[in-house]
Amino acid sequence: PLVADDDGIFFVPAPPVSGAGLRRAGVQQASAVVIYQRTASITQDPSTVDSEVVFACRLVESLISAAERDVPVFCDLILERNAFFVPHLQRRKRGNKFLPVRTTEASSAAADADDEDEDQARPKQEQVVTKEDDLPFYMQERFANGQLFVSSVITSMAANMMYNPATASIFQEMLKSGYAIVPVPDSWTGKEFESLFSFMLRKRNLLPVALLRRLNFDAEQLEIDDDEEEGRQEEGEKKPPERWSPADGPSERCVIVMPPGGRLVAEHDGVLCLLPATGGGVLVEPFTTPADT
User: How do residues 9-67 score in pLDDT, each as one tens digit?
Assistant: First the structure.
C-alpha cells in the first residue's frame, strides 16, 4: 500500500491485548490512540461482539495511566449496548494537565455505600444523571469527549433517511446554519437545562443545542457550592460568577449534545447555540440599568 512509502508510519505486528506489544509500539509515548476493528467477533452473544475492543481499551488506558500521561483513546464499537463495558474514566487536574483516574470497583462500591443516604434523598431523575453506567452511550463522558464511536448509529441513521426523507433535510439545514458559543447569562436564575433552553429561546432568540463542560466537573460539588453561595448571600456577601470565556482551552472541555431537561447547568458552562436564519440573536448580555430592573 501507499502508506508503506511514508517514513513516519511503522507497522508493529502484535496482538492488541498484549501489553508487551503495545509498549513496543510506543503506546505510552503516543499523542493519541485509535482502537478500530475491521469486523466484529463471530459470536452468538451480543455482549461479546466488541470484546476485543473493550479489553484493548482497558489495557491501553492502564498503560497510559501508569505512565501518568493524558492521551486520548478513541474506541470504535459495533453495537451501542456494549458501550456499558467500555471503561469510564474520571479526569483530575494535576498541574497543567487533566490526567485520567480509573475508578476501581472497590472504590466505587465504597463511594456508593457512603453516598447511599444522600442518593436516596435526591430526586429520582437526578440520581439517574449521576449514574453514568445507567446512561445511554450518547450521554456518557467518553462520547461527549469524542472518544467513542458506534458504527451501528450510521446504519440506523441511513435507514431512517430511507423511510423518512425529511431527516436528510434537517441535517442539511443544520449544516448550513451558523453556531455560536455564549456563556451562561447573568440574568438567568435557573439551575436546569430546561429552564435555560426556554430563557435563551424567548429572551435571546438563540436555540441551545449543547453544553461545553469542564472535564473535571463534579455535580456533587456544584450542590455544595450552591449551598455555600446561599449562605454568603444571607450574610450579605456575593461572589462574582465564573463564566465561560473564549480564552478557555478546548482540550479542557467536553461537549454534551442536547442534554435532558433535568441536567444541572454549571455557571462556568459554555452554551452552544444555533443562530436564527432570519433576524439576529442576542449574543452579548444586554446591559441593564437599575431603572430597567
Answer: 778 888 888 899 999 988 888 888 999 887 666 777 887 888 888 999 999 988 988 88
Place of cell 447569562: 185
Alpha-carbon distance of 158 to 171, in angstroms, equals: 12
> What CA–CA distance (Å, rounded) separates 214 from 228?
21
- Cα–Cα distance for residue pair 57/77, rounded to 1 Å: 11
Concatenated DSSP letters of 79-104: -GGGGGTSPPEEEEEETTEEEEEE--
Contact (CB, 8 A) for 205 and 280: yes
What residues have CB less than 8 Å from 167, skipping those under 6 apart? 157, 160, 161
Q: Which helix (H) or strand (E) holds 150?
A: strand 148-150
pTM of the model as a whole: 0.60
Sign of CA dihedral 186, 190, 195, 196: positive
Q: What is the DSSP secondary structure assignment for residue 42, as one 8-state letter?
A: -
